[in-house]
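Handout, section B. The chain below has 219 residues.
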Amino acid sequence: MENSLKSIQNTPLFKGIKAEAIKELLDYFGVGIKEFKKGEFIYHVGECATNMGLVLNGCVHIIKEDFWGNRDILAEVGVGGLFAENYAFLANVPLEVSAITIEQTEILFLDVRRLISDAIGSRESNLILIKNLLAILAQKNLMLTRKMEYLSQRTTREKLLSYLSAESQRQKSSQFTIPFNRQQLADYLSVDRSALSALLGKLRDDGILEFSKNKFVFK
């Protein structure tokens, strides 16, 4: 864990907390760091997550799969991001989603219930940590609201343009990148990949946008 302290310091969860204080906090509620290979499940549907995960390197997708294996990507968690925090707080509630890596990934696991215990509740560093956690949860709720807006659109075209428009505005440029490949984008928007690819081709032919892999330009 010592070797990863710099990476931990740079995460939103530990923003504003000094290195020595981070070490003390991790001694109390840090469970450990684990590396996962690409495509490896961290949590499966039906399991109970006793710890939340903090991504130090790599990337995690939070997914929902139906009986036939069709997959929806609910969220992407990059470096510095948290996952399974809600279930870790609830402890005995089985997961309704799975967490899977999309590349080699390093995760710091944290016992979130110890974080809010009275034993360290008076420490300034712990109060900062809780404040950071609340800010992260608020941001994730905002992201969920945005995704609901995309999915509420009636057609594949409306879903795609709603998402791409939001990404363009967020990055403040008509040229922007997205974190998904074609299959992942289809899974994220809950649309058919073939229909999505055909639509992208039509939008390009109509002069609305240009794209190369995950890079897009609105014309």
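Note. The two ends are 47 Å apart (CA to CA). Compare this with the example in section A.
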